[in-house]
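Hi V.,

You were right to ask for the full record rather than a summary. Here it is.
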Amino acid sequence: MIFAPSPVLTVTVEDIKGTADIHIHAGGQGVWQARMLGALGATVTMCAVFSGETGRVLRHLITDEGVRVLPVAGQGSSGAYLHDRRGGERHVLAESPGDRLTRHELDELYGLTLQAGMEAGTVILSGTSREDSVPADMYRRLTADLGAAGCTVIADLAGERLNGVLAGKPAVIKMSDGEVVGSGRAAAAETGQIIKAMHTLVREGASSVIITRAHLPSLFLHEGSLSEIHVPEFQTVDTSGAGDSLTAGMAAVLADHGTLHEAVVLGTAAGAQNVTRHGLGTGEAAAIVELAKLVRIVPLDDTSEEEPAQQMSPDELARKVREA
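Predicted structure:
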């Protein structure tokens, strides 16, 4: 289940032989995570608020992707953006973060999230398009209540929302090194600084932490053991959505009762494949499973020995992807 308070309507203009190629999709962190989960064969439920014209379009687009939507009808309008990528890079032409959610909308959303979370057992808490849309304390309460109900809570958040989730004690926190520096827990994106920050995140409430570092191996802290996650580097089309793909891949395995190491492997493979594509949160399950065979977990206390990334056969990993 994905808590995605405020999805965003995205309009992106590409170029095909001098002709504008216009793409209209649902977007936002939770949507990209749901899209990758769907690509991996998972059944996904999303709890979200849909407001105004943009909200009506968003709800139809998300439902059309096979996601079960538990909607809250909101006031105002949902967020939207228009990007021009005809030159190869994204250029923002117009953006609207949408309206702040009201107290009644938040209360209804909270109830739906608890219900769906307990049904699913594995929950991703995603962010919002505007910082003040959902109070940080709501993330704290959701994390604590879902955890008390026996759910595995995964979060990829920053700022006050991260602080709220940490206070609720999540199972997994995923961040980028830039977000760690931005949080003030590290002075620079240097390995030593990031490692210290990871231990700080554990002291603040996270059970496990994974930090992505662009072209460098991700760092993984679990049960006091620190590792690097190695994966072949492919030619990059768009790095946007890679982190959300990683989070989704982890959730797919954890929902099928796989280990966190297995989850990190598949998530890393999903993120690595996503950068080779234009679509955010997109991928092909068969290719991701093959790529997962190349992922290696390297313990940092003894980097001369590599721990096999997979603790199951390729057939078993494929089965987990299909059944997650």
